[in-house]
Design brief:
four-stranded antiparallel sheet, PEPTIDASE_A1, 505 residues, single chain, alpha+beta, 7 helices, 17-stranded mixed sheet, CND41-like, 32 strands, binds 2-acetamido-2-deoxy-beta-D-glucopyranose, Cathepsin D, subunit A, domain 1
Length: 505
């Protein structure tokens, strides 16, 4: 049984009601939302059954192509889901320790983003085009991250072609999957990718530029060379994440299927030694900014644009979407996409930053900015982290508006503002709005405001946390990005936001 699955499911139910019209029309100037609150229903089957929604199966069969005056762009759509392979006991204590582990892992990630080394990185120029892949939330894989499914291996492969469920990460670049023959692999749900079964698989030669500069930009260290079983030298990569997770293996190329689109010569890591908080996924899709990221590698096809819509519910069948390419026809946004400038930091090459010029809660201004020039937006961090002074202001305003009617509950992990909502059928939740440079607003969906620790509603917390120091980088986490279309236009150098009901299935 998966605790978060239920949590988000309930919040999603709440969100639907909060939308007033089922999320239909544009709601401008929304300040708060009324949420119905009910006892969580624990589903009968906790096992993470993975199923593609019918809607997406259709979409995924064909790549959308569209000729523009200046260039040809194409777009492909992938399903995006929470992943939840781990069965969690119904017992409250088990659920609580599960949530604690998840938030501890999130803290490790948030810290690792702060500690990123400041080595100089080179950034290649951008090309242009679009593809869409489905996104699902990472719950099934023991994290709060979102996953999508890709396939590696060419058509002529024997058994090489396989669907692989991977974590979607905008905070790193190199895509990797666990590969046969694994020396150290964690248990994954999909069959291991077998390079020997794919006729189109090839190791990247050691003297290729991908092994040197590109890998250094993507991982901080260039590849190392060693003779494989053949006579040619292979390029070995070593990826280390801040929380101690790692993947090491052979840098390789193969054909990758992304929704309806198929691309040859995709550079990825064939991981022979992998360990960490990847749960039951096959690996990770890197959507960062350097040249080895999926976005950069597919830029001539998809124009360097991608977007996602993260579902609020973690129910196994609920899927949002990951679109590669700039074709907006696959969006179901309820409000127009409004853009703000995308900011790059040469010292932190993979990351996407923006300038947040204000924060309000329930329509009341709480802060004149987020206390830092660059605010990181990340698909892999769960809980939004704010500078201590900004967090205090936001929390204060939220509490002022919310606690008038709801008694306090004990803090939980990194969440320090919690309420006992037992006995309330509905709660009115003030919403956080971020004012972005250029005038765009991003209002957090009702589903992204509260984190339900206990299924009976007796411990429900404001889903945001404080950084340790004022000068750390604020992070907009995925919990606050739910039910939004978030557009990353790396060529136009802009980030876009629109309200969207992301439960596509
Ligand atoms: C991969 O997923 C697609 C889309 O759901 C499905 O049609 C196909 O049969 C799957 N392939 C394998 C090998 O499971
Ligand atoms: C890499 O090495 C191979 C074999 O030694 C050679 O044929 C090839 O030209 C080299 N490639 C580059 C880019 O130097
Ligand atoms: C952020 O935007 C504000 C308002 O446009 C501007 O005054 C400020 O200089 C910007 N900050 C940075 C670091 O660009
Ligand atoms: C929450 O509030 C209810 C109703 O007021 C009360 O019975 C219950 O003991 C409280 N639970 C906790 C954990 O404080």
């Amino acid at each position: 049984m998966d605790a978060r699955l239920i949590l988000l499911h309930v919040l999603a139910l709440l969100a639907v009601v909060a939308g007033g019209g089922g999320g239909g029309g544009a709601v401008v100037g929304r300040e708060s939302a009324v949420l119905p609150l009910r006892e969580l229903q624990w589903g009968s089957s906790g096992q993470g059954r993975y199923s593609q929604s019918k809607r997406f199966e259709k979409k995924m069969t064909g790549e959308h192509k569209k000729s523009a005056a200046a260039r040809t762009t194409s777009t492909t759509v992938l399903e995006l889901k929470h992943h939840s392979l781990t069965a969690i006991s119904d017992h409250p204590a088990a659920q609580e320790s599960y949530l604690r582990r998840l938030l501890a892992a999130d803290e490790a990630r948030a810290n690792s983003l702060q500690l990123r080394n400041k080595a100089a990185f080179t950034q290649s120029g951008n090309a242009a085009a679009a593809a869409e892949v489905p996104l699902t939330s990472g719950i099934r894989f023991q994290t709060l991250n979102y996953v999508t499914t890709i396939a590696l291996g060419g058509r002529s492969s024997r058994a090489g072609v396989g669907n692989l469920t991977v974590i979607v990460d905008t905070g790193s670049d190199l895509t990797w999957v666990q590969c046969k023959p694994c020396s150290v692999c964690y248990a994954q749900r999909d069959p291991l990718f077998d390079p020997a079964g794919s006729a189109s698989y090839a190791a990247v030669p050691c003297n290729a530029s991908a092994c040197e500069a590109s890998l250094k930009a993507a991982t901080g260290v260039p590849g190392s060379c060693a003779s494989g079983s053949g006579n040619s030298e292979k390029c070995y990569y070593a990826l280390a994440y801040g929380d101690g997770s790692f993947s090491r293996g052979v840098l390789a190329t193969d054909t990758v299927a992304l929704g309806g689109a198929s691309l040859d010569g995709f550079v990825f890591g064939c991981g022979l030694s992998n360990r960490g908080l990847f749960g039951g996924t096959a690996g990770l899709m890197g959507l960062g900014r350097t040249e080895l990221s999926l976005v950069s590698q597919t830029a001539s096809r998809f124009g360097g644009v991608f977007s996602y819509c993260l579902p609020a519910t973690t129910s196994g069948d609920a899927a949002g979407s990951l679109s590669l390419g700039g074709d907006t026809s696959s969006y179901r946004n309820a409000t127009p996409v409004s853009y703000t400038r995308m900011i790059a930091d040469p010292a932190q090459p993979p990351f996407y930053f923006m300038n947040v010029t204000g924060a309000s809660v329930g329509g009341a201004v709480a802060a004149a900015g987020l206390g830092a020039a660059n605010v990181l937006i990340d698909s892999g961090t769960v809980i939004t982290r704010l500078a201590p002074s900004v967090y205090r202001a936001v929390r204060g305003e939220f509490a002022r508006q919310f606690t008038e009617r709801y008694p306090a509950a004990p803090p939980f992990s990194l969440l320090d503002t919690c309420y006992n909502l037992t006995g309330h059928d509905e709660v009115k939740v003030p919403l956080l709005t971020l004012r972005l440079e250029g005038g765009a607003d991003m209002t957090v969906d009702a589903a992204g405001m509260l984190f339900m620790v206990r299924k009976d509603g007796s411990q429900v917390c404001l889903a945001m946390a404080s950084l340790s120091f004022e000068d750390q980088t604020p992070i907009i986490g995925n919990y606050q990005q739910k039910n939004k279309r978030v557009v990353y236009d790396t060529v136009g150098s802009r980030l876009g936001f629109a309200d969207e009901d992301c439960t596509y299935a």
